[in-house]
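Z., the sequence and structure:
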Amino acid sequence: MSRMYQPLRTCEVQPGAEIGVREATALDPDPVRAVSDLRVSLAVDAPSLILFFCAPTYDRDALATALNDAFGHVPLVGCTTAGQLDGAGYRRGGITALALSSTELDVSIVPVTPLSQLATGSIALAERLTKRKRKPGWRTCALTLIDGMSHQEEVLTSAVHETLHDMPLVGGSAGDDLRHAGTAVFVDGEFKQDAAAVVLLHTTLELRTFQFHHFEPGNKVLVITDADPARRTVAEINGESAAREYARAVGVPIDALSPRVFADHPLLLNIGGDYIARSIRSALPDGSLTFYCAIEGGLVTRVGRAVDVVETTRRAFDRVVRDLGEVSAVIGCESALRRLSYEEHGIDREIGNIYAAHHVVGFSGYGEQFNGIHTNHTFTGIALGRPR
């Protein structure tokens, strides 16, 4: 049976300016019944946007048909996940959806497909991104949802950021429960691979974009000495077999390398004074490592060392509340490896409760985007508040 989470809140903020926020999760494995449940709980007049995040186990054609029948008249976009974030914190299975409704929110969804041809179609993308005129006094930010196995996140993020200049950008890469069999983005009424959606949020609502992770650079320095950025593989670190050298640095036997080890020990890269995480996806039989981000030869990295996860998370959201005041909703994109690490260390419920307390709705996936950078092992978010 489907367990439903009813609409959490509708916030009236001032006469004539209202943001309606409704969130629900349906756990029924049947796509038609699950979407029917969502339609009941997300009933809202003239929604500006419906975002959804779904388990990869659904039949995508059947789910697309059900979604179009229920919500095809409104802006609708989503992706497959490695787990969702909803009013109960962390969630596995089912479909989580968020409906936003406000006369102070204007939404444009720009599909990008095929992603693999983006390098030759960047001019057309720029034209589509800048086509809609901004209203005077309104602010805009971009939300990206990207096929998590496309290996095109860096290209898309860079193209969008360069086109939109100073516009904030937050996003995430679709997941499939760490199966790495196939991820997809729902855009233009279909689940698509080799695709992305750029959602432009144009609004008078107060908003903040933010990111954080819970690692600091350790003493172990790892220099990438042989890499294939296009394939996201590293053959050598410090002139030695990449897997062997990494295992030595984190203090485990090479045959003990696993997603949980990678989750606890990402590599950190210094970019402009900030340390950005680069997460390992797998160790290959030939001794090379594959990553969730493109990584180039010659880069100097450090093995990440975890700091207090719970306190780091609390401080990050406290800063958002101080900056924004009342938070109506947070659209969150989080690394699947963060979640895996939290589960391994038994703190996933505590972290999930912090997210739920701050109205986070989102998903766990295979990468995160923030402004012009594609990163890993990070939480990125868009927090929405009152109109100005």
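The first strand starts at residue 9 and ends at 14. The two ends are 43 Å apart (CA to CA).

Let me know what you think.
H.
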